Amino acid sequence: MASFLSDLVQYQGLFQMIPVLGIGGTFQIGFQISTVTYMSQHVKAFINETWLERYGYPIHRDNLLFLWSFIVSINGIGGLLGSSGSRYLTVKYGKRKCLLCNNLLMIAAAFIMGCSKIARSFEMILIGRFMSGISAGLCVPLHHQYVGEISPKKLRGFANSTASFFWSLGKAVGQIVGQRELLGSQSLWPILMASCGVPALVQLVTLPFFPESPPYLLMQKGDQEGCKKAIRQLWGEGHHQAEIDDIMKEKATMKNTKILSVLELIKEPSFRWQLCMLATVTATVQLCGINAIYFYTFEVLQAAGFDERMIYYMSLSVGLSELLATVVCSSIIERMGRKTLISGGYWIMSLLLAGITVTLSLQDWYFWMPYCSLCFIILFVVVFGVGPAGATVSIRVEIFKLSCRPPAFVISAALNWVGVFVIGTAFPFIVERLKQFCFLIFMVVLFTSGIIIYLFLPETKGKSIMEITEEFDRLNFKKKHVPATPNHATEDYTFCTRL
Fold first, then answer.
1. Quick check: helix, strand or coil at residue 124?
2. 228 to each of 97, 138, 218, how far by Cα in Å?
3. Could you give the percent of the chain with pLDDT greater than 70?
4. 173-200: per-residue pLDDT in tens?
């Protein structure tokens, strides 16, 4: 505790910047995910009313289900487009400028969605969700990279795990304001839908007071004075020579290296296993069942036999449980390590999904069985929050050098948003066909991914980017000659000693 308070004083600039990035970053994404659940019934009713006004007859049930699933999933299409452009924009303009401009897009999307009921146009909801998806697609990789790059090595795991904390905080806040007593009513749901612009406005106002990341300023812009100023603002006036040396060593290896494109990164043999691990953890986050539960919490709890009036409060308990779990993750990630949290978390989650399937199958046998289903769902999100949620974010940042981090995050975000679209579109139909057995699909994915992570992912806790790269080289090249890391950064160390 004393050590943490000491770090809080010394790195006060960093601890001030993390909430600014989180509120305008993963917080608003989590907020949108959870509020979708509370708008489900109201938006469906609005679509039906609008359809009846236009055509004189109510919309067919299957068409309504399709339109609603498309409203949920079109956010993923926008996210895919936004993430595809994140590499180019990051390299050209830097992360801070991109985030500031991105906030304007989110505010515009919120305004369009908020006016949909007045305009009697459910198409405006589709447009707004698509625009907010583009904004989210840009925001998430920028947020993750930014937090990872502004953090010293000893706080890197903690700082990276805050992304999952703000994600869960956004879900919890969305669930609270989405209650029928607040903004989740038939008359106020457009305000709930438009409220996703508030976090973007907060970041738009506060982010200009903070610097660009030190590695970006030094390695891509060659701005030594700007780098020194950013380090002092974020890390204080203390001795940071070890972290600075790591930046300089990475800079030395990049002297004749440009920022790779997505295609160049895929073709590069020295990053083959890094990409495999990235694809595994990213795909598993989407196919583990967590987003399916959040997108359709109402339907899942309804299938468990709970009264409709109680479901809203029960889903709130699910979100609050994950929020508390991410706090635990932030405190243990530097002690337990990323590999243990991810692989162990996957296996426990797969067992809990088996429990959810069994309890949903037996809900008509015993009156207390639905409560067992709720307990398993809560435990599932708790394990996800404690383990894979924060550790996955940290892994994405730590296994790639700066030269290939932007395209790596494009690949990760593309896989992520494709998963959002597929799950958002397909899950209601899967539930209708397979009922409670739909969770067995996610169980198989979790168990398989846990084995892959356990066997092939090196532990990254407390290691520099160069040390992690050397461990991956043993997998990438095996018996072949491992390329030596260039060691010609002496001329740059003069700059380091003057900090």
1. helix
2. 19, 27, 9
3. 84
4. 887 888 878 887 888 889 988 998 999 9
Of 105, 100, 101, the C-alpha closest to 210 is 100
What whole-number distance in Å separates Cα of residue 345 and Cα of residue 322? 13
343-385, pLDDT tens digit by residue?
A: 999 999 999 988 888 887 887 777 777 778 778 888 888 888 8
> Would residue 305 be called left, alpha or beta, if left means φ above 0 and alpha means ψ between -120 and 50 degrees?
left
C-alpha R_g of the chain? 23
Q: How far apart are CA 102 and CA 357, in angstroms?
A: 41
The Cα–Cα gap between 145 and 478 comes to 29
Q: Which helix (H) or strand (E) holds 399?
A: none
What are phi and psi for residue 461, nearest 5 degrees? -60, 125
How does 282-298 read in b/e, with b if 16+ C-beta sit within 10 Å?
A: bbbbbbbbbbbbbbbbb
Task: Band the pLDDT of 298: cuts 50, 70, 90.
Answer: low
Cβ burial, residue 101 (10 Å; 0-12/13-18/19+): middle
Half-sphere exposure of 493 (CA within 13 A, CB side): 9
Tell me: the pLDDT tens digits for 267-283?
888 888 889 998 898 88
Task: List C-alpha distances in Å: 411 to 278, 343, 422, 469.
Answer: 9, 22, 16, 19
Q: Which long-range contacts does 212-217 make (Cβ < 8 Å, 24+ apart)?
A: 212/94, 212/95, 212/96, 213/95, 213/145, 213/146, 213/149, 213/150, 214/149, 214/150, 214/247, 215/149, 215/247, 215/250, 215/402, 216/94, 216/95, 216/149, 216/402
pLDDT digits 0-9 by tens, 221-264: 777 777 778 888 888 776 666 666 666 766 666 555 567 778 88
Q: How far apart are CA 61 and CA 64, in angstroms?
A: 5
pTM metric for this prediction: 0.73
Classify residue 192 by burial, with Cβ atoms within 10 Å: 0-12, 13-18, 19+: buried
